[in-house]
Fold this sequence. Notes:
heterodimer, A: alpha+beta, Uridine Diphospho-n-acetylenolpyruvylglucosamine Reductase, domain 3, Enolase-like, domain 1, 2 domains, four-stranded antiparallel sheet, 29% helix, 25% strand, B: alpha+beta, Ubiquitin-like (UB roll), five-stranded mixed sheet, 43% helix, globular
Amino acid sequence: MVASEVHYPKSLAEVLELQRLHPSLLLFAGGTDIQRGRGGRYIDLPPVVALLEGVPELHLITRTERFLELGSTLTLGSLLELKKGILPEALVAAIGGVATPAIRNLATLGGNLAARGRFMDLWGVLACLDTLVELRDPAGPRWVGLNRLCDDEGRPAFPAGSLLTRARLPVEAWNSWLLRSLADPEEQGSGKAVFTLLARVEKGLVSAFRLALAGRRLLRFPAIEARLVGTRLPLARKEIRELKEDYRRAASELAPLAADRLASLVELALEGYSR
Amino acid sequence: MTVTFILNGEDVSARFRSGERLVDVLREDFGLLSPKADCRNGSCGKCLVLMDGKLVPSCQVPAFRARGKEIITFEGYSQTEEHADIRAALAVTGLETCGFCEAGVNLAIASLLEIKPRPDRAGMLEHLSAVRCSCHDPETLLETVLAADEVRARRLYHRGRQ
């Protein structure tokens, strides 16, 4: 076991300087993902570690009329303590589904988005909400969509050497959401994938419809969603069946059972809107 | 490496290897045996402690993270008058926990009692699910929380009148 040098930076500038000096620096926030599945006597750490919790810029919550910005080291527990109505309901539900309350007091928003092995529980809902994240590296800060944290095959690809400082969520009303944990079609055993569906219906018309399945891979279906926008509700039984089949076909790269489950959940949601 | 922190109300220093877990430092360096290193992945709740007032699994906290923090184990919490409320409630409901989960259960109840406004029934049960042990049932645990809340409210009321 390597004896690690642990730093306790007090500002973003200090973190960036540490990153410049130590390219293999481990940015330690909640640490729950780093320890996932490693139950040994010692936590395996690289030679240099920076504990981020003392950096005030990373705990900030800012709210404007159009956006809600959340610092990356806010714990999931602290997000659940926010006054009702500040976070979108679907996000609150997704956070409430993460591990246990005690783990949520350690796990952070940034850790959930920057995990490399798989998409964590909040990924789907944050992607559906069109969340942007601010990344900082020696070249400076930049805002990117969550799709930039995936590779071409839809697998997690958080850019090495970057620091995720905050997430920006558009403030929008969603009248309907559905979250379900499914067995991850790409993983045998206990792995799960989170199915997220958000919809906005205004004056009887579907004005936004977003779906994501996030586990080992992220699946999105923008073409079907674009077709659904502008559709008048209620949908006829035949239309619902056709959309269900469209989703099943679009998800055909999954195991048949997983594609069926995904299509059935879409059907369940669409039938709900049509009642 | 060496860090200083507050442990059960006292300023302490500990020297350990950088990858060491807080649960092991508490048990081996300080002889506090109430947190148990059982699952070592944070799911069983037998190593729970309060870190700056928040319930956390100490097996998931690297000891270096304790620097400057206040850590309370069951040994410390059981000396407080807040715990007397929980003891009184346990006597009322007859809940008996095993030696493995006793600390976790008591600290989970303690942290739940601090949440204002109190969560609904489902929220309370979910909070208490931080400890997984077959020795107790969630319903009696919930009754104990409600009883402890009443005991505390009475205690604070009487103190206010004195």
